[in-house]
């Protein structure tokens, strides 16, 4: 890159809508779990593009898939189907509870489809008055107006005028509250099988099972938002398997494309029959490029050695974080499952997760936060074990610089 056409970080402030506050550095190249910025500085990536880059950067199976498909056909619209979409849908149904798949471009769109399907099923089976959606506080389901309203963080949905109605938020993990509130007017309960943005909060034993039973009792559908937990992230292909609870509808995105935008809603034959021609759609949903990449990603992450490797890497992270905490005493606990992990700040360090993130960046390590009090780690599922070791050493240095 010549100096004349070098992109500057200041351009962001000049030309981009200011709803983000990106880091000063601009990444330009990635390989595996390492990234280099414009100045050539190297970073170890424990963030994974917010649980997206499940095979790291520029994995050969993804590069090959997109290169091959790029020389065939890019877009056809949903007036026709295409080979990559059909192959991917077939594999998703073979690997999960689902019979049918709807493709979208993001997790928000997958959830939008899920919520619309739930409302449609209830209206056609029981009547319009059965329309309540129950969700959980601190949940996150996307940024469209419907999904952000269902999400349990009002700061994201306030200030945009009247919200979609008949959405109720209860406390996650509170079985009694759900039991007291759910009724025959509830059309669906939507939950993350492990809350991501809300602070890496796992369900207590029996919570998911109780939700499933209460949904069955009141003829409500159970929707699992697996946008962040899905595609091998927890060590199962989808987290519902580890909970032993099967949802009626599941949304997936993020790691599904390994970095190429794609989302999907999965459901059963019976429920899918309520979405007849014209009831829902997406111009780019099922795009051949996206589906070709996602098929390659799915083939790789569904391998037993990949899923077993997630659990091996989880142990390395937990051991390394425990060792760091034995020196600096800043974490109260390490939460999560697989490679969706959160280090919760203790009482003395409340509100300082971002300080850790900033210090890590200076040491050449990329991490995330989940709220003000949790440092979040969502690296590649196949991150080299040496990269984990080196990244944790950089985290140690970063924390040493701020204690």
UniProtKB/TrEMBL annotation:
Main location: cytoplasm
Pathway the protein contributes to: Amino-acid biosynthesis; L-arginine biosynthesis; N(2)-acetyl-L-ornithine from L-glutamate: step 4/4
Reported cofactor(s): pyridoxal 5'-phosphate
Pfam families associated with the record: Aminotran_3
Matches recorded under CDD domains: OAT_like
Molecular function terms from GO: identical protein binding; N2-acetyl-L-ornithine:2-oxoglutarate 5-aminotransferase activity; pyridoxal phosphate binding
Residues holding N(2)-acetyl-L-ornithine: 143, 282
Any single Gene Ontology cellular-component annotation: cytoplasm
Residues reported in the UniProt entry to bind pyridoxal 5'-phosphate: 107-108, 140, 225-228, 283
Protein name: Acetylornithine aminotransferase
SUPFAM superfamilies attached to this UniProt entry: PLP-dependent transferases
Lineage of the species this protein comes from: Bacteria, Pseudomonadati, Pseudomonadota, Gammaproteobacteria, Vibrionales
Subunit note: Homodimer.
EC number annotated for this UniProt entry: 2.6.1.11
Species name: Vibrio albus
Cofactor note: Binds 1 pyridoxal phosphate per subunit.
């Amino acid at each position: 890159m010549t100096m004349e056409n070098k992109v500057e970080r200041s351009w962001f402030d000049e030309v981009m809508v200011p709803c983000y506050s990106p880091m000063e550095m601009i990444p330009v190249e990635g390989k595996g779990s390492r990234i280099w910025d414009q100045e050539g500085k190297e970073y170890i990536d424990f963030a994974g593009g917010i649980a997206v880059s499940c095979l790291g950067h520029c994995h050969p199976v993804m590069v090959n898939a997109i290169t091959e498909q790029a020389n065939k056909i890019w877009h056809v619209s949903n007036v026709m189907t295409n080979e990559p979409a059909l192959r991917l849908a077939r594999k998703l149904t073979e690997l999960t509870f689902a019979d049918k798949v709807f493709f979208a471009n993001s997790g928000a769109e997958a959830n939008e489809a899920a919520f619309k399907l739930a409302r449609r099923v209830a209206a056609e089976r029981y009547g319009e008055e059965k329309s309540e959606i129950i969700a959980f506080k601190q949940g996150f389901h996307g940024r469209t107006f419907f999904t952000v309203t269902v999400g349990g963080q009002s700061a994201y949905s306030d200030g945009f005028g009247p919200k979609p109605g008949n959405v109720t938020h209860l406390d996650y993990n509170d079985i009694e509250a759900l039991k007291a509130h759910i009724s025959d007017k509830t059309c669906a309960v939507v939950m993350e099988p492990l809350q991501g943005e809300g602070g890496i909060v796992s369900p207590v034993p029996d919570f998911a099972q109780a939700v499933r039973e209460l949904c069955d009792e009141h003829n409500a559908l159970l929707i699992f938002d697996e946008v962040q937990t899905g595609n091998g992230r927890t060590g199962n292909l989808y987290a519902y398997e580890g909970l032993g609870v099967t949802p009626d509808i599941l949304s997936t995105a993020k790691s599904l494309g390994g970095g190429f935008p794609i989302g999907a809603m999965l459901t059963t034959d019976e429920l899918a029959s309520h979405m007849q021609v014209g009831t829902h759609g997406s111009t780019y949903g099922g795009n051949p490029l996206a589906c070709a990449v996602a098929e390659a990603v799915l083939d790789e992450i569904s391998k037993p050695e990949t899923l077993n490797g997630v659990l091996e890497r989880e142990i390395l992270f937990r051991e390394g974080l425990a060792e760091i905490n034995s020196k600096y005493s800043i974490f109260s606990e390490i939460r999560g499952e697989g490679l969706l992990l959160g280090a919760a700040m203790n009482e003395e360090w409340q509100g300082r997760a971002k300080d850790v993130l900033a210090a890590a960046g200076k040491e050449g390590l990329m991490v995330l936060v989940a709220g003000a009090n949790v440092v979040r780690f969502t690296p590649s599922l196949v991150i080299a074990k040496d990269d984990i070791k080196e990244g944790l050493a950089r985290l140690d240095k970063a924390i040493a610089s701020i204690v």
